[in-house]
Amino acid sequence: MEQHLSNERTFLSWTRTGLNIFTIGCAIGRFGGTSNTSTTLTDPDSQKKPLISGIILAFAGILCLIYGVWRFVRNHRHIKHGTSSYSPDIFGPIISILVLMAALIAIIIIFFIV
C-alpha cells in the first residue's frame, strides 16, 4: 500500500508541474501582448511573440503531463505484478529540464533576437 501511495504522490507532483507550466504558457499567450505601448501599436509582430511563447510553454507542460502519466502507469504495473525491477528515474527529470530549458531559450530568442 505504501508503494502505491508513493507512486500516486509522485504522479500528482508531475501533474502539478505540468499544469503550472501549461497555465503559465496560456497566460503569456493570452495576456502577453495586451500592452498599450507605442511599440505594440506600431509593430504587428509584437502581438505574435507572446502567442508563440505561450504555445511553446503550453507544449512543454503537455509533455510533462504525458511523461507523468507514462511513469505512473509503468510503476503501477511493476507494483501490481510484484516485479522488483525498480530503477531510479534519471532520464525523465533530465529530459524534462532540457525541454523546459529549450522552451525558455526559444522564448528568449523570440523576444530579444527576432
3D structure, described in words:
It is a single chain. This protein is 82% helix and 0% strand. It is mainly alpha-helical. It is elongated, with a radius of gyration of 19 Å. The model has no long low-confidence stretch (mean pLDDT 84).
Mean pLDDT: 84
H/I helix tally: 4
Q: What are the segments in which pLDDT stays under 50 over at least 5 consecutive residues?
A: none
Structural class: mainly alpha
**Rg over C-alpha atoms, rounded to the nearest angstrom:** 19 Å
- Strand proportion: under 5%
Largest sheet: none
Q: Can you write the helix and strand succession as a string?
A: HHHH
| Estimated helix fraction | over 70%
The count of DSSP E runs of length 2 or more, i.e. the number of strands, is 0
How would you describe the shape?
elongated
Instruction: Report, as a whole number of angstroms, the end-to-end distance.
Output: 53 Å
Topology:
Layout: H1 2-31, H2 38-42, H3 45-81, H4 91-112
Helix pairs in contact: 1-3, 3-4
